Structure formats: structure tokens, C-alpha cells
Amino acid sequence: MVDEAKRLGINVSQACETGLQEQVRKALGEEWKRENRQAIESWNKWIAENGMPYDEYRDCIPNL
Q1: pLDDT tens digit string along 11-50?
Q2: Domain ranges for the chain
Q3: What is the dihedral of CA 53, 57, 58, 64, to 10 degrees?
């Protein structure tokens, strides 16, 4: 595959770096979700029980 990429003029090291950056970004996002799952679930429960904060003021803001 590397030979084919080079034949096509693809910068292999740049392609590898770009792919690695994407994988690290995704892994960091998943890690953050795992670490913050309890807070997210707690906030979602609060919203389900109480509604969104400041919902009572939503009609006071004019549509621009």
C-alpha cells in the first residue's frame, strides 16, 4: 500500500500523521465521555425533571 501511495504522489508520512491525529482526537473524546459520564447523566436527569434552565424566559427574547 505504501508503494501505491507513493506512486500516486501521496505524502505517506503526512497521511499517517493526519490519521494518527484523528485517532487520538477520537480517543480523547471517548476518554472524556467516560470520565464525565456520571456528571452528564446527573445533568440530563436534572433537565428531565426540571426542564432547561431559564426556559421561562425564552418567550421574552425577540427573534432576530
Answers
A1: 999 999 999 999 999 999 999 999 999 999 999 999 999 9
A2: 2-60
A3: -130
Cell of 36: 464525565
For 3-63, the DSSP string reads HHHHHTT--HHHHHHHHHHHHHHHHHHHHHHHHHHHHHHHHHHHHHHH-STTGGGGGGSPP
pTM above 0.70, yes or no: no
Separation CA 9–CA 3 (nearest Å): 10
